[in-house]
Amino acid sequence: MSGGVDSAVAAARAAEAGHDVTGIHLALSRNPKSYRSGARGCCTIEDANDARRAADVIGIPFYVWDLSDRFHEDVVEDFMATYAAGRTPNPCLRCNEKIKFAAVLDRALALGFDAVATGHYARLENRPDGVPELHRAVDDGKDQSYVLGVLDERQLRHSLFPLGDTPKSEVREEAARRGLLVADKPDSHDICFVADGDNAGWLREKLGERAPNHGGEIVDDESGEVLGRHGGTYGFTIGQRKGLRIGRPAADGRPRYVLDIEPVSGTVRVGPHERLAVTSIRGEQPRWCGPAPAAGTRLDGPDVTVQLRAHGAEHRAVVAVAEDGMDIELLDPAHGIAPGQAAVVYDGTRVVGSATITAAERARAS
After folding, report:
1. Annotated binding-site residue numbers for ATP
2. CATH number for the domain formed by residue range(s) 211-271
3. Is 95 a residue of the active site?
4. What architecture does CATH give domain 5-184?
5. Tens of pLDDT along 95-151?
6. Is 192 a catalytic residue?
7. Which residue among 169, 240, 338, 347 is least enclosed by CB atoms within 10 Å?
8. Does domain 275-362 have CATH number 2.40.30.10?
9. Residue 258: count of CB within 10 angstroms of its CB
10. What pTM, to 2 d.p., does this model score?
11. Which of 42, 43, 92, 192 is catalytic?
């Protein structure tokens, strides 16, 4: 129970369905003020109190589990290291993989519980052979199956997502009917451990001299002209337009975007938007939401798509499964794809699996 409306209603529904429910709030920082401040639905003392009050209304036991050390090592440190290496991570996927459905689930099973229920917007369906499948939520605008694409079959067997069949507006109405004071609490946004939402500023403060190269040049990728200097490659992500501070427009008057980041040399390469178009992707460290397809399998049905951002569009694709990952051909080019992001593969509404992007090949210039 994060302290937000979704997990509160999920807990209430699980209890109403007859399950023996215990509410768990995760203390992810030994100094909560160093993470999110304000009522944002994650990581603060306010949120812990909101979760406790919701548990009291529902009538279930409530505990706080301190996972701050594990969270810092598996999520925060990974976030910093990935940015320092010139890649763009998604800490929500890492938190689901390493914390909520690993550390929490393992402890829950050891204590005799059967499953972890969360307020994520996703659905579980069982195949005739009993294997669970992860599917998109009914509410497309709130669907969170992308950030759950790292869950394997074992984790899905011990998971419950009570909100997957309900639009968010109805969840808030239900919370109000149940007397839950979080019914109108704003949704959490951005990254929970970046207090003010300024990722670049947070990374600058935390990384500093730890980055492989904390300064370098901003270079026009077409002409090779040096356009300016920056204070650290960790302040940039591929596809970024704002905050480049290059001082003057391109000769054609069009804006420039970050095309490549070279953390060793400290070079950030920029160019026009059309140079961001990507047609093929290499993904490694695959995670399959069910039995793993054999190496050599091609996923190329009419409903096969790939999603590359948490709230991004789906792209029709052909996926070739390899021993150590997957090679993805995008039938609909994508823009601004960065190593470190996750590629989540769907067949219709079903999540097939995911992989971490290690390389992206741009479309050939016409």
Report:
1. 26, 119
2. 2.30.30.280
3. yes
4. 3-Layer(aba) Sandwich (3.40)
5. 999 999 999 999 999 999 999 999 999 999 999 998 999 999 999 999 999 999 999
6. yes
7. 169
8. yes
9. 23
10. 0.90
11. 192
